[in-house]
């Protein structure tokens, strides 16, 4: 066969006569996206994402069906071509109805493959579940107890009755690992000969150290406290998070080779300048452990202390003496923790004072209920005015409040009621109204007006190129899972920095969503019957308030599998291999560029092997042509015209009524997950390198 000489992207090129531009470009090492093209099928030229520019032609041409000719000048990568491909993708996405990933997963700051690990638990694969969790977050036991559960806010099961107990399920395989002695130390890449200083052994620092060691980077973790955990040790009581759980998960990071140096404070024992000289990079995971003041006269008096100071002291000594009558000022989880802790130390009366209404308290409602069940009193719509010493006690003057117009938080602003002052005599006052970043120990990095460290949101890199930061010292006081996620992102960025690569962090692909909860079609939840959420076993209120035993005792095997079975398995089984998602990521495509009608949700899972989700179909025609050209079986075909054209099973019947043994083969021809097999793995992420051991 004679050769054809042509120009491809500015360079001379040779192709066989009869080759398409797509064939020639691929042979020359150039990437051209396509949905409708397959080597085993005739050219179809329907999707047009393979469009290229040919000199002398007014319009772009489909490379999959245009043959190379002598002297042809082709450009497959200029801006005109890229814009055209992006437009094609934007149009496809604007009509696409479906989720790449489950809404629980996209709501999780750490990006844990929630549908995947929940499915593993439902099927008794508990080690697989834990490996999938720690692929993105190494503190499964800790956060499985104290996470504020943003994932459950996104869970669509609540459209049926209640969200799946994702957080409580997360601790289940971690507890199994402890009970059965699984070796969960992950494999690591070979050493790259670099070392990093991690300042702070809280959630962000521990996470950074874990992933740095997986990348083969030596690291030393410095912490001002005498033990690891940061705020999850010194700000969360042991009845919620036993210290043994923290120690067990830190032990894995130590076994990976991370060195820990405790009782070492940045700014006095070591300085940032020293660390930058001794180490190749530094990660600052300092937390936000400086208590906010009440701005109330008398708060400096003996007997008044912050919630963080109080919880930290009790973490070190759970026999700490305490007065008979205690007031806790604040409405967040720290206030709840402080009040419940005071009861456990022996206080006879503990009252929470909060300036707004109960429904506006930021603390978890179930934590508030637990506190009330244990005997804590709640005084709402009241605020402290001044504190005075009365002998060996304290007099707290308060004022009643009423709710006015909403403030910047969206909550109605509390307004003092004139002449409503009242006083209470108590033994101690605990102020739990917020935490700030103590930036006095850091020099050389840029700070915000709030005193937090300025760092890139994606990479954690500061203006000092070899200094990275993440967690509460960047965001201000925040939830632990955000800090864990920040440490992981920073580890990726530090690895890139040390290798001299562009610092981009952990890249995330395009994620399509069906929308918010109120936008989900009823057809999505219709197949699911109401099933009561499994309640976490817990100690009785009277029993638990007398000591620091863990309140939530954990699911049994039967309970965990039953609760996991409630998962609706949202998300796409083909998300990891979907060409539409891949190309949308490559060309920065958007589903919001074009408005208009969308496809109607329609899912047919009547076939024993195959599932067809018509709302995901992009009409590439691969399945239709496979039926005609390869399978010799008219299983599916096009129906309708124009915008309303759809790929339908023969005679628009349900899949179960198609009399063909070839039907299930169509899944392999679909590039976007509209056709999938029922036995396809639910997990959309692949766990990292763990020892190949059988589950004990």
Summarize this structure as a short list of keywords or feature phrases.
696 residues, alpha/beta, Ubiquitin-like (UB roll), Fumarate Reductase Iron-sulfur Protein, Chain B, domain 2, FAD/NAD(P)-binding domain, 5 domains, five-stranded mixed β-sheet, five-stranded parallel β-sheet
Description:
The chain has 696 residues and is of the alpha/beta class. It has 5 domains: 3-77, Ubiquitin-like (UB roll) (Roll); 103-184 and 510-564, Fumarate Reductase Iron-sulfur Protein, Chain B, domain 2 (Orthogonal Bundle); 195-289 and 437-498, FAD/NAD(P)-binding domain, CATH 3.50.50; 293-433, FAD/NAD(P)-binding domain, CATH 3.50.50; 579-677, 2-Layer Sandwich (Alpha-Beta Plaits). Helix content is 29%, strand content 17%. It contains 22 helices and 26 strands. Strand 24 and strand 25 form a beta hairpin. The model is unreliable at 689-696 (pLDDT under 50).
Radius of gyration (CA) equals: 30 Å
Q: What's the number of structural domains? A: 5
CATH class of the largest domain: Alpha Beta
Indicate the proportion of strand residues.
15-25%
Main β sheet profile? 5 strands, mixed
Tally of helical segments: 22
The CATH fourth-level homologous superfamily of the largest domain: FAD/NAD(P)-binding domain
State the total count of DSSP E strands: 26
Strand line-up across the major sheet: 2-1-5-3-4
User: What fold name goes in the CATH topology slot of the largest domain?
Assistant: FAD/NAD(P)-binding domain
